[in-house]
Specification:
By secondary structure, the protein is of the alpha+beta class. The protein has a single domain (about 5-90), classed as SH2 domain (SHC Adaptor Protein). It is about 35% helix and about 30% strand. It has helices at about 5-10, 20-30, 65-75, 80, and strands at about 15, 35-40, 50-55, 55-60, 85-90. A five-stranded mixed beta sheet has the order 1-2-3-4-5. A hairpin with a 2-residue loop joins β3 (about 50-55) and β4 (about 55-60). The longest helix has 11 residues, at about 20-30. The chain is globular, with a radius of gyration of 13 Å. The chain starts with a helix and ends with a strand.
């Protein structure tokens, strides 16, 4: 994202909201496979979290952890492999 104005204009970017608020937003939009939003982390300043509906649950991917996993393994074959090291809730 180039700047704050660009980020604010993207419909999937929700800014600095909590995990519970992210889950509420996804629930309100209708829980369906692949539905996602991007948010700023409240716990880790400057970090971003991708919140995704996957297999009927919410998956929260810390993007720094996710990207470092990609770099280490050179390839990831989908969300299913990443969710093992991610934060999930039912």
């Amino acid at each position: 994202m180039q700047d704050a104005k660009t980020a604010a204009a993207v419909k999937y970017f929700f800014g600095r909201i909590s995990r519970d608020e992210a889950e509420d937003a996804l629930r309100t939009a209708g829980i369906r496979e692949g539905l996602f939003l991007l948010r700023e982390s409240i716990i880790k300043a400057g970090d971003y979290v991708l919140s995704i509906c996957h297999e009927g649950r919410y998956v929260m991917l810390d993007l720094l952890v996710f990207l470092s996993t990609i770099v280490r393994s050179h390839t990831i074959s989908g969300v299913a492999n990443v969710t093992r090291t991610s934060y999930t809730s039912t």
